[in-house]
Protein 1
Amino acid sequence: MFRSRQVALRVAVGILHAALLLGTLGLTCVAGGIPPSKFDFTNTVPAISGQRSGWKVAQVVITLSRMTPEGPISCVCPIEIGVPEINFQGRVSIELAQQECAAASDMAAQVVLKREGLLSADACILFRREMQGILKDTLRGVRVTDFLTPGVRPTSFP
């Protein structure tokens, strides 16, 4: 038992050293995927039974960070994801929307963090654009923007 903990600790330290080395070399290492629960959808327009209708929104403030030779660089991106309650494929469950948004945000972060020299505003625009592109096929009717809908309580990550 003690031996397996030592091995696990050595592996964890090795991964940490590799991530720091990649950052020092200017390479991108994306870690810390956003959990689906951070996409806390609020119904803003009720669905009409049997019709394509309704709308739910999640607002999340996501901090994108990467290590550079000069030190860490971060930008804070407010994003709003709007999803129909019912689209032409049927009802869009909150669980499906949360899972798809979490996966899309991780993929979009990888794209953004690989780009060097982006200003914070440009990084956030690219992040939203990438998320929209990733989600458009799995969550038909999705809209990814800056915060637009008043009265929705945003979450944050990390």
Protein 2
Amino acid sequence: MLKNLYIPLLLLLVSITACNKKDVRQQLEGTWQGKDFADEMLEGVDEEEREIGRQFIQKIFYTFNADGSCIKKAPDGENKASWEYNDRSRSIIITYTDNHQPPIQEFEIKSITGDELKISSGPTGFGSLDFIFEKK
């Protein structure tokens, strides 16, 4: 009896996991514009400096296409890339096809709703930086 129940439960679990990955990937597709920092590390930063940073991030756009291609537009230019969603680490991995440095970036997804994406750059020389993007 238990054996008969095991296979349908396993199939249900696999299909739920596949749907969740597809749902997040579909939510990511589209164009996202930087909005702000979401980082406690910046709490002590002078408001004027924070505003300069906020204005800079608001000029950054990522477009994630369904075919796995990606375009990053920033004040320093436009970069073409490919992207993938890693369900295990809940991260976006961007691999640039031009001279972008670093050539690969990984952003952990802190949260995603229909129109807001919170990501973390992971450890940097300044600690971990968290960003908020809005869907356009």
